TrEMBL record:
Chain segments annotated as transmembrane: none
GO biological process: proteolysis
Keywords: Signal
Name of the protein described by the UniProt record: Peptidase M19
Cleaved signal peptide residues: 1-24
Length: 407
């Protein structure tokens, strides 16, 4: 028997014995594979707050059920999240000189913490300053870190202070948060300025001068109207939703969606205001007491953090939270695309800031959105625009306007 015959006989014997070649690799989900190829950016990561938690590391794996965090490097890798805009968030306080100075210092320290995270892990993260940087950073196998400002209150009465934050990496900045401040009316507070304040108009001009994209999430509809009328560059809503799906002050109506798109802007759909849910009075009271005991600006020791987590888990067990579903999130996203067009919609899920729905617990679950978009008939090119192409186009437009010679 020659060598070829011996090989064929041996192969036949292996088949008969059930010892044929076995692959150890699990089937690859096409949506998950596409997610890894795409440049995937989220425009509102509140994860910098996690950097201040005692003993917490961005490079270690955590779980949403374990410590209520939703973003870390292992989960970013699993879900294909390449990075995005890491928020310098300052909860609104009194509009006094002393409180505003403290807010300024807090914001500068938070910006420094983001930069220190990158410096401590240069093999995993890289700062981005230009729209073109994101693709290059992904190609180098690292995660993209742009900075953003949520709530401009820390700037005080000096819009020029934005230049310092821009030098630190800020490329998107919002005006207000849950309460009206010196720059704009909030969508969830009483109006004082009927839109942007005179100082807010100055801040908008400074954003345009520097190449910072104006963010009108949290600001009132009239403030959005002012920004659309006055801005020399397109506007972004970094984490907002659609009033047609859930009528909430934080969401915008179809008329504003169309106006935003007509001006070249983008709405980034969040995962908080997607469905009207009324929690039980018992849960609301318990959570309010917990928040009073552990306010956002309080620095906890490791022991206090563990106590907080135990108390939070006890509330969840006794008074379970009513949660929106993944389908509710997709209803928001698909409605925005239908009204504004696929070139004017993106993703800003408010991770680590209250985001997440049942079925989309943390960033490891992102391929579910891609799978749903493909199933709805959108092409890979469409999905690429939604995950990063649209926001980078807006950022590039802001850069170009800032670089043009001023007359």
């Amino acid at each position: 028997m020659n060598a070829r015959s011996l090989l064929l006989a041996a192969s036949a014997a292996l088949v008969l014995l059930g010892a044929g070649p076995v692959s150890s690799k699990a089937p690859v989900d096409p949506a998950a594979a596409l997610q890894q190829r795409l440049l995937t950016l989220d425009t509102h990561l509140d994860t910098p707050a996690s950097l201040a938690l005692p003993g917490w590391s961005i490079t270690e794996a955590h779980t949403a059920g374990g410590d209520y965090t939703q973003v870390d490097l292992p989960r970013m890798k699993k879900g294909g999240l390449d990075g995005g805009f890491w928020a310098i968030y300052t909860p609104q306080g009194p509009l006094t000189a002393v409180a505003t100075r403290k807010a300024r210092d807090f914001a500068l320290l938070r910006a420094s913490a983001i930069r220190e995270m990158v410096a401590a892990h240069p093999e995993s993260f890289a700062l981005a300053g230009k729209a073109a940087d994101a693709a290059a950073i992904k190609a180098a196998g690292k995660r993209v870190v742009y900075l953003s400002i949520e709530n401009a209150w820390p700037l005080g009465d000096d819009p020029g202070l934005l230049q310092s934050f821009h030098a630190m990496g800020v490329r998107i900045a919002g005006f207000a948060h849950f309460r009206t401040n010196q720059f704009a009316d909030s969508s969830t507070d009483k109006a004082k300025w009927d839109g942007l304040s005179p100082l807010g108009v100055q801040l908008l001009a400074e954003m345009n001068r520097l190449g910072v994209v104006p963010d009108l999430s949290h600001s009132s509809d009239r403030a959005l109207d002012d920004a659309l009328r006055l801005s020399k560059t397109p506007i972004i809503l970094t984490h907002s939703g659609c009033k047609a799906v859930f009528d909430h002050p934080r969401n915008i109506d179809d008329a504003h969606l169309k106006a935003l798109a007509a001006a070249g802007g983008v709405i980034q759909i969040n995962s908080v205001y997607v469905k009207g849910l009324k929690q039980s009075p018992e849960r609301e009271a318990a959570m309010k007491a917990l928040e009073a005991k552990y306010p956002e600006d309080k620095t906890l020791t490791a022991e206090q953090r563990q106590t907080y987590l135990a108390e939070r888990r006890a509330i969840d067990a006794k008074f379970p939270e009513l949660r929106a579903s993944f389908d509710d999130l997709m209803a928001n996203l698909l409605h925005a695309i239908a009204v504004a067009g696929v070139e004017h919609v993106g993703i800003g899920l408010d991770w680590d800031g209250g985001g997440g729905v049942a079925g989309l617990e943390d960033v490891a679950d992102l391929p579910k959105i891609t799978k749903a978009l493909l199933a709805a008939g959108y092409s890979e090119a469409d999905v690429a625009k939604i995950w990063s192409g649209n926001v980078l186009r807006v950022l590039a437009a802001a850069e170009a306007a800032a670089e043009r010679p001023k007359s």
